[in-house]
């Protein structure tokens, strides 16, 4: 999800008289599942940076698909939360693109240049050479659904390149956060009725 969209949702939820505490107290099914993709991501990055397994290995493709699939299952389990359908739609778009491109989410080179500058990008690719394998090329499938939306300063705090799926997922998260912050919990209803 796009961090700035989430921060905006938190601010707007608060401005609309929502409560931050409701985010912590909302009943979420299978909450532990949210840590699975995070663990997979950390483990795969550690393996990649240690050069124990080459980036071209199918292992990274399987892990990336598993990350997105786990978040999709978690979202389905929490279907009743407003915005969940959009979150799932965005995840499915990203999952289709990742599967179609061998487990990677290709990124547009010009968009990377737009957010980093050409020289800084060269330095970045020198440090992280696997980025070259992630660039959109003539053989990239569903290129229009890949990371092709540059988000740069002053519109965002952290410049990045996003996909249409990321935008859809973030809109769903935006809706979910505001809805949860503004919806009284059952315990609050009981407190009022006393």
Summarize the structure.
The chain has 194 residues and is mostly helical. The chain is built from nine helices and two strands.
Structural write-up:
- The protein has 194 residues and is mainly alpha-helical.
- The chain has one domain (3-184).
- 59% of the residues lie in helices and 3% in strands.
- The protein contains 9 helices and 2 strands; from the N terminus they run αααααααββαα.
- The longest helix has 20 residues, at 58-77.
- The N and C termini lie far apart (40 Å).
- The model has no long low-confidence stretch (mean pLDDT 90).
Helices and strands, with pairings:
Layout: H1 3-15, H2 21-25, H3 35-49, H4 58-77, H5 84-100, H6 109-116, H7 118-127, E1 149-151, E2 160-162, H8 164-182, H9 186-193
Antiparallel strand pairs: 1-2
Helix pairs in contact: 1-8, 3-4, 4-5, 5-8, 6-7
Strand order of the largest sheet: 1-2
Number of domains: 1
| Overall helicity | 55-70%
Shape: globular
Overall strand count: 2
Please state the structural category: mainly alpha
Q: Which strand-content bin applies to the residues?
A: under 5%
* Chain-averaged pLDDT: 90
Summary keywords:
two-stranded antiparallel sheet; globular; mainly alpha; 194 residues
